[in-house]
Design goal:
By secondary structure, the chain is an alpha+beta fold. The protein has 13 helices and 29 strands. It is found in: Secreted.
Length: 735
């Protein structure tokens, strides 16, 4: 029996050995066993382990040769002959001849540059036209879908499936990338198919290179001199890195799946690690230079480096900056905020407060770096005397929270930008998704509205925290509590919550009004304001305005101006946006900054240029609408917690402790009423022009007689006899 096994082993090609660890490379040994999953739904019970399917070798495009597939079951060996293929397979491109030595290799430097960045499949720097394949099961599983971390829609078989998948009858599948320029390829990262319903992934593959897409050579195993076979994936989502035994300079690279999950298909998502190289003969058009001229620190910062950078900005601009902490994460990391204003540390009467929050999901790292870049930029430009920045920091108090979930970020940072996958580091250390962790104030408001209690009995603003949410055993993350207390301390007017993984701006409500609805248009009473704010960011973001850009995953938001109502996208109960709107005065949107949640460092300069103007312009929108101070007519003192109501908009705001307020409104004529306990309300007309505001709209309120009497009694004054007799008559009538 063992002699038979040894003889049959000569039929099997050499394959790599490894478990998908970062840095693993093809070693010319057998791959690990692969688990076959039967059934179509995720969560099915795995079947016993068996060896992965080994596609037969043979000629492409209608070969007549017989192919042998070997399956080992305990000690028995079963040989199955594949039927002859009598007709050419459709959509399968014949493989060009492969040589064992590079033919037509360019005369370029051979030394490897360490740490080659991604070529750009995930970030869309590589266009769809640069991707080809031997075959595809459908358009939705075409080569343009073979990008690392691409996400499918809820339905399989549509135009937006979650991988490239070769046809089942494609005996020699391949996936090809055209770099368009001489490139030093150094590594490959792969994933399986993203799907709610199917399991498909490649378990091993070979790699080939070409300069003309006709003549190819393979990546060779250094120790054995054979074509290297690289271990690939053992699940659909975990990214697996393989470094090439020797970096190769070429224009084209091909991945040739050798084995895949039994019962599945050859499906993969990938990113190619590659360094650009010089072209001494100037044979190819030069790649466009991407970057920024701003003298900023373009790199990823872990917790220690972030804290150091914020300290450096504070030391460079001590007169306009202040670093403070709003609390700690579950693991004790401080939630640092950079405040930037001409009077840091104090609320100035009439000066609005705005904030940016990033890193709510720890693996969505771009927002964190953009805020660190923004604070450097504002400091640098203020010292240069830039008039726009000077006005912004003189008239506005800006707060930047770069990392709301530092525990999650540290997890993602340790994995690295290309290997962190789609979800690792998203949650805090307790496993809580912070964007679902705020109190649900939507439901009690909508129930009160349905009962006709709003606004007379139940207010349409500043809804209190539910009792269950304040209990000691409530599932509320320390990061969430810290942000809520921060919101309650500072009278924020405007905010944006920076996320990643898409290119779109979403606005409240984030939760659908119909219970259990997965998605439903659910606008707020301030829908026109939120649409304006969202359009301002989307309209000044370079990437969102790129006319030829393709969708990130499964929805083309460019058809609707790159903005969407959050609930109409997908429902998010307990979101920070909805909570901010219903519990405070602050209007907050969510900005999805990039298809790539954790872009490589070399992409940060371009991402900064994509978002710089949008970040500045959005902050300036705090001037849109009306502002003023509500004062006591007799004392001229500001009245705190006065209610500002706009006719026709069922959502009010309140004044800060000094009596000042800001009410964001789109251009138009408004009837505004200011009211406060113990005062007669006052109403006036306020016009918001299209020119940059804000428009002053001040109020003086007069105390009611009842309030005057309360104040007299509180001061120990005696009640006049005539007033005492009048009060006695009123009490008698009441009795």
């Amino acid at each position: 029996m063992w002699g038979l096994l040894l003889a049959l082993a000569t039929f099997a090609p050499a394959v790599g050995l490894g478990l998908g660890a970062p840095g693993a490379s093809g070693l010319g040994l057998a791959p690990p066993a692969t688990t076959e999953v039967r059934g179509s739904a995720r969560g099915s019970t795995p079947a016993p382990q068996s060896s992965p399917v080994q596609p037969p070798a043979g000629k492409d495009n209608g070969t007549s040769e017989r192919h042998v597939r070997i399956r080992i079951v305990k000690k028995k060996v079963i040989m199955k002959k594949r039927k002859k293929l009598t007709h050419p397979r459709p959509m399968v491109t014949a493989r060009p001849p492969v040589t064992t030595t590079p033919v037509g290799v360019l005369d370029l430097p051979e030394e490897q540059e360490p740490g080659c960045p991604p070529l750009g499949l995930e970030s869309l720097q590589v266009s769809d036209s640069q991707l080809e394949a031997s075959s595809s099961q459908s358009f939705g599983l075409g080569p343009h879908r073979g990008r690392l971390n691409i996400q499918s829609g809820l339905e399989d078989g549509d135009l937006y499936d979650g991988a490239w998948c070769a046809e089942q009858q494609d005996a020699e599948p391949w996936f090809q990338v055209d770099a368009r320029h001489p490139t030093r390829f150094s590594g490959i990262i792969t994933q399986g198919r993203n799907s709610v319903w199917r399991y498909d992934w490649v378990t091993s593959y070979k790699v080939q290179f070409s300069n003309d897409s006709q003549t190819w050579w393979g990546s060779r195993n250094c120790s054995r001199g054979m074509d290297a076979v690289f271990p690939a994936n053992s699940d659909p989502e975990t990214p697996v890195l393989n470094l090439l035994p020797e970096p190769q300079v070429a224009r084209f690279i091909r991945l040739l799946p050798q084995t895949w999950l039994q019962g599945g298909a050859a499906c993969l998502r990938t990113e190619i690690l590659a360094c650009p190289v010089s072209d001494p003969n100037d044979l190819f058009p030069k790649a466009p230079a991407l970057g920024s001229s701003d003298p900023l620190d373009f790199r990823h910062h872990n917790y220690k480096a972030m804290r150091k950078l914020m300290k450096q900005v504070n030391e460079k601009c001590p007169n306009i900056t202040r670093v403070y902490s709003i609390g700690k994460s579950h693991q004790g990391l401080k939630l640092y905020v950079m405040e930037m204003s001409d009077q840091p540390g104090e609320h100035e009467l009439g000066e609005p407060e705005v904030r940016y929050v990033a890193g709510m999901h720890g693996n969505e790292a771009l927002g964190r770096e953009l805020l660190l870049l923004l604070m450097q930029f504002l400091c640098h430009e203020f010292l240069r005397g830039d008039p726009r920045v000077t006005r912004l920091l003189t008239e506005t108090r800006v707060h930047l929270l770069p990392s709301m979930n530092p525990d999650g970020y540290e997890t993602a940072f340790r994995r690295g930008s290309e290997l962190v996958g789609w979800a690792e580091g998203r949650w805090n250390h307790q496993g809580i998704d912070l964007n679902h962790n705020f109190a649900d104030l939507n439901t009690p408001l909508w129930e009160a509205e349905d009962d006709g209690l709003v606004p007379d009995t139940v207010p349409n603003h500043h809804l209190p925290l539910p009792t269950y949410y304040t209990l000691p055993n409530a599932t509320v993350a320390p990061e969430t509590r810290a942000v809520i207390e921060w919101m309650q301390r500072i009278p924020f007017v405007l905010s944006a919550n920076l996320h990643g993984g898409e290119l779109v701006v979403s606005y409240p409500f984030d939760m659908t009004r119909t219970p259990w609805a997965a998605r439903e248009l659910t606008p707020t009473p301030d829908d026109s304001v939120f649409r304006w704010l969202s359009t301002v960011y989307a309209g000044t973001n370079r990437a969102m305005q790129e006319p030829d850009r393709r969708p990130c995953h499964s929805q083309d938001f460019s058809l609707h101006g790159n903005i969407i109502n959050g609930a109409d996208w997908h429902t998010v109960p307990g979101s920070m946006n909805d909570f901010s709107y219903l519990h405070t005065n602050c209007f907050e949107i969510t900005v999805e900054l990039s298809c790539d949640k954790f872009p490589h460092e070399n992409e940060l300069p371009q991402e900064w240029e994509n978002n710089k103007e949008a970040l500045l312009t959005y902050l300036e929108q705090v001037r849109m609408g009306i502002t003023g101070v509500v004062r006591d007519k007799d004392t001229e003192l500001g009245i705190a917690d006065a209610v500002i109501a706009v006719e026709g908009i069922n959502h009010d705001v309140t004044t800060a402790w000094g009596g000042d307020y800001w009410r964001l409104l789109t251009p138009g004529d408004y009837v505004v009423t200011a009211s406060a306990e113990g005062y007669h309300p006052a109403t006036r007309n306020c016009r918001v022009p299209f020119e940059e505001g804000p428009v002053p709209c001040n109020f003086h309120l007069t105390k009611t007689p009842k309030q005057r009497l309360r104040e007299l009694l509180a001061a120990g004054a005696k009640v006049p006899p005539d007033l005492r007799r009048r009060l006695e008559r009123l009490r008698g009538q009441k009795n």
